[in-house]
Amino acid sequence: MSVSLSHPRVTAGLTTATELSVVVPTFKERGNVAELVRRLDASLAGIAWEAIFVDDNSPDGTAAAVKEIANHDPRVRCLRRVGRRGLAGACIEGMLSSAAPFVAVIDADLQHDEKVLPLMLAKLKSGEADLVAATRYIAGGSAASFSEKRGAISRLATRLTHRLVGTPLSDPMSGFFMMRRDRFDEIAPRLSPAGFKILLDIAATAGSKLRIAEQAYAFGERFEGESKFNIQIGVEFLGLLLAKMTGDLVDPRFIFFAIVGSIGLIVHLTVLSASLALRPFDQAQVIATFVAMTSNFMLNNELTYRDRRLKGFALLRGFILFCIVCSVGVLANVDLASWLYGERQTWWVAGAVGAIMSVLWNYAMSTLFVWRAR
Ligand code: GDD
Ligand code: MN
Asked: Which residues pair with 50 in a beta bridge?
C-alpha cells in the first residue's frame, strides 16, 4: 500500500493524527480568513491542527475564499451551510464534524487572541479540565476594544446571567473556548442551535460534571468587516436565560407574551382612569381596550415575535387578525369566569381562571395565525 508523500501531514508513510480542530463560524468574513489562518499557523507551531470554517452561505464569498486556501493547505476546510443562519448552530455542526480529541471555537474577526490557544490546549492535556473558557473578566483579561455601549450590554448580560443561572464562568458571553471532543459529543444532542451563546449553553447543559478552567485574554479590535450582533440576538439571549430559569419548562416566547400582556394591563388601567374624566365608563373602557390591544400588538411584534416581525400591509392584516383573536379571547374569558362564579366559586378564582384562559388562547392563536412561522 502506498501513501502519497506530497501530503504535509504524511511523513515517511506515517500520518500524524490531528490533535486540535479549530472551528471558525463565519458570516461575511471574507477579508479575515487568510489573516486568521496565517495567525493560527504561527501560534500553533508544533501542534497537529486543522481549521474548520462553518460558513452560512455568506453573500460576500467567504466560503470561496476559504476553499481557495484549502486548495493548497489541507489543514483547512470549509463547511458551507445553505438555508440556515445562526452562530451557535454553526459552532455545533463544526465541532460535530471533528475527529480530533480536542476542539476549539474562535471568532473569525481576530478579536479573540489566538496566541492563548496553546495554553488552553496544555490545560486540557494535563487533565485538569474538560473545557477551558477564554475570559475577558479575570486578571490578565480585558475588553477595552468594546464600545462603551457594547461593553455596558455585555456587563449587564454577564451580571444577569450570574444572578439568574448558576454558572462558574466569569465570562459566560464568551464565544472563545476549547474542550474535549468526547465531552462535547455527549451533550451535543441537548444543545440549542439558536442564538449566540454557545459556551453558556454547553456549561448549563452539561452541569457540574463538566470541569471548567479559564484562560485570560485581551479582547481585541475587529480586523475587517462588521459585527453581526443585533437586538434580535439580545432578545433571544434573554429568552434563553428565562428558559433556563424555568428548567426549560416554559417556552421563552410565552414568557415574553405574558410580560407584554402584563404591560398591557397597566396601559389599560392608565388609559381607563384618564378617559373616565371625559367619558362615561363603557366608552372609556372601549377606548382603554383598544389602546391596550394596539400597544400589545406592537410590543409583541417588536419583542415576542421579533424573528417573524410583520411590516407594511402584513402589519395591518396582522393587527386586524390580532384584534379578532383577542376579542374571542375576551368572550371566552367572560364566559368561563361567569360560569365558574355561578358554580359558587370565589370571585377572584373565577376571574383569574378566566384571565389565564384568555392569555393561553391569545398566545396559541397569535402563534398559529397572526405571526405564522414561514
Ligand atoms: N456561521 C455563522 N452564522 N457565523 C456567524 C453568524 C451566523 O449566523 N453570526 C455571526 N457569526 C460569526 C461571525 O462571522 C464571527 O466570526 C463570529 O460569529 C462572531 O460574530 P461577531 O459579529 O464578530 O460578534 P461580536 O464581536 O459582536 O460578539 C462577540 O462578543 C460576544 C461577547 O459579548 C463574539 O465573540 C460573541 O461570540 C460573544 O458572545
Ligand atoms: Mn466580533
From this structure: 21
pTM greater than 0.85 (yes/no): no
pLDDT at 1 over 80: no
In angstroms and rounded to an integer, the radius of gyration of the C-alpha atoms of the chain is: 26
Grid coordinates given for 96: 460535530
The span from the CA of 353 to the CA of 336, in Å, is 8
Residue of minimum CA distance from atom 15 in ligand 1? 107
Atom of ligand 1 nearest to the CA of 24: 16
> Strand, helix or coil at 39?
helix
Cα(76) to ligand 2 centroid in Å equals 21
**Tens digits of residue pLDDT in 57-84:** 999 999 999 999 999 999 999 999 998 8
pLDDT at 372 over 60: yes
| CA gap 284, 278 in Å, rounded | 8
Secondary-structure breakdown of the chain: helix, strand, coil percentages, each rounded to the nearest 5 = 55, 10, 35
- Which of 18, 24, 77 is closest to 49 using CA atoms? 18
Beta strands in 56-121 (DSSP E): 76-80, 102-105
Single-letter code of the amino acid located at 41: D
Name, of 11-15, 164-168, 368-372, the range with top average pLDDT. 368-372
